Prior knowledge:
Layout: E1 5-6, H1 16-20, H2 32-48, E2 56-60, H3 63-72, E3 80-85, H4 88-99, E4 103-108, H5 117-126, E5 130-136, E6 138-139, E7 144-145, H6 148-158, E8 163-167, H7 179-182, E9 186-190, E10 201-206, H8 208-211, H9 225-232, H10 243-259, H11 261-280, E11 285-286, E12 298-299, H12 306-315, E13 318-319, E14 321-322, E15 331-333, H13 342-358, H14 367-378
Parallel strand pairs: 1-13, 3-4, 3-5, 5-8, 8-9
Antiparallel strand pairs: 2-10, 6-7, 9-10, 11-12, 12-15, 14-15
Helix pairs in contact: 2-10, 5-6, 10-11, 11-13, 11-14, 13-14
Amino acid sequence: xxxxxxxxxxxxxxxxxxxxxxxxxxxxxxxxxxxxxxxxxxxxxxxxxxxxxxxxxxxxxxxxxxxxxxxxxxxxxxxxxxxxxxxxxxxxxxxxxxxxxxxxxxxxxxxxxxxxxxxxxxxxxxxxxxxxxxxxxxxxxxxxxxxxxxxxxxxxxxxxxxxxxxxxxxxxxxxxxxxxxxxxxxxxxxxxxxxxxxxxxxxxxxxxxxxxxxxxxxxxxxxxxxxxxxxxxxxxxxxxxxxxxxxxxxxxxxxxxxxxxxxxxxxxxxxxxxxxxxxxxxxxxxxxxxxxxxxxxxxxxxxxxxxxxxxxxxxxxxxxxxxxxxxxxxxxxxxxxxxxxxxxxxxxxxxxxxxxxxxxxxxxxxxxxxxxxxxxxxxx
Length: 380
């Protein structure tokens, strides 16, 4: 028998009590019992996102839908937008904007690199009519963490009234996300990453200035965030709510907030870095210029094909993520940002030792495990 383990950057391992929350008797989505749960979930979600008392819209959709909704509910149709493309998801937002007919200025970087605020400023000086900037925060495909605070500051020093829209799908619940302090206008995320809940819910927060942008927008129906805002302030949704998923999310948020946001961020960064340090001791290389705590994006040793590492983990009952597109031959991406602790780190590292030995690498038994354990036990 082989026990299955999920170590991907989404979906993630989910606590039993979170799964159990959705397994009871079905509640009607218009019942008073569900209204109470929905309002409590909204309040907890806003606290996790550091926007207490403000509206974080919950959609029955994926995180991609939330970003798309934020774009078309905020930015006038046909407007010029700056798109930071440094990975698979930055590329997705470029494609979304293009599909809606926006004039897209692309700031394209090699995968693994992060956006330079000075280059953002330079591009906006060349394009002073840009209405919005789109970026990822944690680029899951590369393991890179963009400095959104610095990007937003640079952008708004050039165009003060532009909208800054940020994909926080693998940063919310994993590291500091602070929409108001960073002066951004849209924050979008999903349930199946740092919030350690099942897939299927998307979240959208807009600044008051973004909510007020109502002229000459693209057409939409289901993704009408203003209609949702009015309904959700009353504990309702405009359309049928994903009742079980909301119940699960509510329990997951309760667990995370009980631990404390800062403690959760520190723990996840600590565990992720332990995997990276241990992997480096075995000949792997960190891929990202600035590491996101959501995922250990690692370049395989030169003589090893990354897909073989992913397959060898799967043979041991463990699912990790490989590289995407052109990075598939050399990149692999384990993650412990879900329901995981330090002993999951040790499991990942021990498995990687075993896998690399199987693939012909000279890795001493327990050597990388010792690196990880020392880091976990001696670093605050």
